[in-house]
Amino acid sequence: LASRLKDKTLLKTRCYIGGKWVGEDARQIDVQDPATGDVIAQVPSLGAAETRAAIESANTAQKAWAARPAKDRSVILRRWFDLMMQNQDDLAAILTAEQGKPLAEAKGEIAYAAAFIEFYAEEAKRVYGSIVPAPASDRRIVVLKQPVGVCAAITPWNFPAAMITRKAAPALASGCAMVVKPATMTPLSAFALAELAERAGLPAGLLSIVTGKAGEIGGELTSSALVRKVTFTGSTEIGKDLMRQSASTVKKISLELGGNAPFLVFDDADIDAAVEGAVASKYRNTGQTCICTNRFLVQAGVYDEFVRKLAEKVATLKVGSGFEEGVAQGPLIEMAAVEKVEEHVADAVAGGAKILTGGKRHAKGGTFFEPTVIAGMKRGMKAAQEETFGPLAPVFRFDTEEEAIEMANDTPFGLASYFYTRDIGRVWRVAEALECGLVGVNAGLISTELAPFGGFKESGVGREGGPWGMEEFLEVKYVAMAGL
Ligand code: ADP
Fold it and tell me: Which residues form the active site (predicted)?
């Protein structure tokens, strides 16, 4: 991996705690390239004691940070953004090596990740309070916004860079400090980001990165009285655990959890555009994003055409290492992910659905899986109810708009959904009826740092991105002034 980098010092393999690179003597965890299974680095397995040290240094650093003019914080964050963009190629190579996504997608993720820092560097200067007309003439109502304090972030492997910056940037911009526990499979991107934050002049202690035993680190982060907020992206199961654990100290909490995104195609849709959006939404990151389409619901009049064109397009997606030219589909992150896709395929086939393309492990071996389209799906099937998190597009048929909405909402999740139609009345009706936090209308790619990202129902709590993301790291204080 080092040989791919222009700046080899970005390849850090120690934890970053209180401004120091530590953990050399600890037990080490292998980091593997999912495309080859090769061990590309070893990182420390730290636990509760080191997490406590990170929290304590965050607590000290945060007070001085919050007291600085917002413009100071803004300047440092802006420098961090610039450094990320200057090192985009190296950061992308590190990301592809540990996560597997095609290099072009990794570059895209770095730009997307950096965009959160750029946005919140600007937003830092705009944390406005308010003055509210008071009920008596000798009184004033003043509303202040203040940083919540020390925050903890627990992040997943599918976006090793962006899931950190979209939490850390608004936290730091608002005057908070943050301790990050990145996913054990993808720690190198996190360390590289910390290295660049240090170069940008971020004071020690404000951003620590701790890798190791998830339960122990998570336990310390959720039970510490010094930590005032926990922000998590990952599985619904772990999110519920963290919510429970955070209850004893009543922390503020943001959760971005699983989804079961429907993608509706109506009879009046532009089918070619729908197919293009479908591929973008489903196969990005080899189907491993929480807003990837999980179910395609297609109206009877265009069902055959859509399914045929989708399968044709999907069959052309090149599978391979993210470093190979022209590859659109990298490996899945681990064998358990392959097994889940296989289980969903087998369950669908057993129930009478039909594989149109793909359907099995790829000839390349490892964790490569053929991009798959299955038609004739029925509602009770596993792929209808669970998040597949892999390159499987299951297609269901519907007749009426009401039926489509009912099917789309028939899940405990509510993160993203997509629909294609050219009827303006239907655009409004369906967008309003879908029970989820993000809706793509005639669009399969909708993530941006400018818009609120988050879920309804069991998909989560809170929003990331835009001014909404900033509010998550701010307390509101009402100051009643009397006797004026
Ligand atoms: P996924 O791996 O599918 O993204 P997980 O919820 O398993 O989702 O993991 C997301 C993050 O949560 C990772 O950083 C993981 O190490 C961490 N994690 C897993 N188990 C726990 C736990 N018990 N407490 C705290 N964090 C955890």
Answer: 256
